Amino acid sequence: MSDHKPPYLGFGLGLRPQHYQEILQGSPAVDWFEVLSENYMVPGGQPLHILDQICERYPVVMHGVSLSIASTAPLDMDYLGALKTLAERVNPKWISDHLCWTGVHGVNLHDLLPVPYTQEALDHVVDRVSQVQDVLGRRLTLENVSSYVTFGQSEMTEWEFVSEVANRADCWLLFDVNNVYVSAFNHGFSTDAFLQGVPRDRVVQFHVAGHSHEEGHIVDTHDHPVCDEVWDFYREAVTHFGPVSTMIERDDNIPPLTELVAELDHARDIARKVRERAQLAAAE
Amino acid sequence: MSSLKDLQDSFQRGILAGDDAILGEVNDSATEPRTVLFGVYRYAYVARLAEILGEDYEQVHGYLGDAGFAKLVKAYIDANPSDQRNARWYGRHLPAFARANAPFANHPEVGEIAALEKALTDAFDGPDAPTLSITTLAAIPAEDWPRLTFQPHPTVIRLSFDTNAAEIWSALKEEAHPPKPIRLPEPQALVVWRQEFLARFRPLPAEEAMMWNEAAKGVRFDVLCEMVATFAGEDDAELRAATYLKNWVDSGLLAGCQVETG
């Protein structure tokens, strides 16, 4: 298993079919792409053909939604095998999925379901991450999810749970800025506490995304532009963690590529200003 | 305190079966009661699967309209919790479901439009394989032709429709008003496949469909010619067979051919 922390890739976008031709015909100012693993776990045809071309031109990371790492159902070895086969084709800089479960008893609810922050769940997840890493032959990267409920039985905070998983299973973290913001709003915790609470050296990627405000809660819909509050928190995250590969994640209401590149430029601008301010402070 | 396993069982039942036992395990937030918060998961489950089916069955949606499609989708979701890691295959039973369950079963064109959409999707990302070229075929010595057998491209799917569903699908795809559904006097044979990364389909005339079905089973070219002769007369039977074959090669329906030995 590689011991090295994955490289800093700069500013990337999620690869979406709506943008295939524009990406391949032009040279959008995108440093790297994140591909949804399941979209390419298909026998053949155009999706894999396009993916091969993207992989020739850009660094790529793989992002899955079905690993179900926290499920009490047995690990799906067919899924893991297919994931590994795809990874051999893509040669991704890292492979990520979510710190959640998606179903039990052979059912997949196609949602990122929350975990109680208990010692039992922690031991279970750590064991499963180790098994997955053994199969994949590389460290896994896990993303914090947006959640809408908390459990009465939880014994620790989300950031304590996430940190323990990362440290004990020796995996990387994908720090989803929007998800922290959404969960903090829904559960009334401080985004800063989360930020300060996770191990800096484990974070290899940021997700930045939009969401939808309901009356007394926020739903992580990934179908809106990034809002000012999330940009503000992104600024804090960059200040705290330093340069981390950053990606704008849009899953629905996919806008023209230029619109996402403009959002990405905004992220670049924020990161540049944070860096310049840090350099200025260091020089003083 | 529930074990993690019991908690996940209860959570899943809360989503799939509307069982409220899980509400005893989750907290109210400062701004929302737990029923509303857990309701986000209940809503998202149905909404996500409906979105997946909407993307997979765009023309069925167009044909049934929003209300009719919502009814089909709800019935399908209620009857089919996903057993697939990949959402790509969640809707694979929809054509059979529409054919088997009222009120859609009373409108057989619905299941057939769905079957065509599913076949096109399956062909689109089906297995890669080389296609047989006309140059390769032309290089085969004349004396070997009688013993030629053919391999269909792995994306090829054969369908047989009792209704004018293919015509309805085409009109909907062109955003034109679809024709009224009718039951055809004879079943319509269709072939669906991928060519140049695009999923396509076309109806097969009865004789060509017969020859294709036999060729796909590995029947030799000389036997295929005899079958064509039997089907619609000996005059120019070989020419008809060769014309079908050339069309298959030109449109990428074949992956290869072999000269049978022994």
Q: What this model shows, in words?
A:
The complex is a heterodimer of chains A (about 280) and B (about 260). Chain A is an alpha/beta fold and about 280 residues long. Helix content of chain A is about 45%, strand content about 15%. In chain A, helix 3 links the parallel strand 3 (about 60-65) and strand 4. With about 260 residues, chain B is α+β, with helices and mostly antiparallel strands. Chain B has two domains: about 1-90, no CATH class; about 120-260, Outer Surface Protein A, domain 3 (Alpha-Beta Complex). Chain B has ten helices and five strands, in the order H-H-H-H-H-H-E-E-H-E-E-H-H-H-E. Chain B has a three-stranded antiparallel β-sheet. Chain B has a two-stranded antiparallel ribbon with strand order 1-5. Chain B is elongated. The N and C termini of chain B lie far apart (about 70 Å). The model of chain B has no long low-confidence stretch (mean pLDDT about 95). The chains are: A alpha/beta (about 280), B alpha+beta (about 260). The interface between A and B is large, with 45 and 48 residues.
Brief rundown of the structure:
Chain A is built from nine helices and ten strands. Chain A has helices at residues 20-25, 46-57, 77-90, 119-136, 158-169, 177-187, 191-197, 228-241, 257-283; strands at residues 11-14, 32-36, 60-63, 95-98, 140-143, 172-176, 203-208, 212-213, 218-219, 245-248. The mean pLDDT of chain A is 94.
Keywords:
heterodimer; A: 284 residues; alpha/beta; TIM Barrel; two-stranded antiparallel ribbon; 10 strands; globular; B: 262 residues; alpha+beta; Outer Surface Protein A, domain 3; 2 domains
Helix-strand pattern of chain A, N to C? Answer: EHEHEHEHEHEHHEEEHEH
* Estimated structural class of chain B: alpha+beta
CATH class of the largest domain in chain B: Alpha Beta
**Overall mean confidence score, pLDDT of chain A:** 94
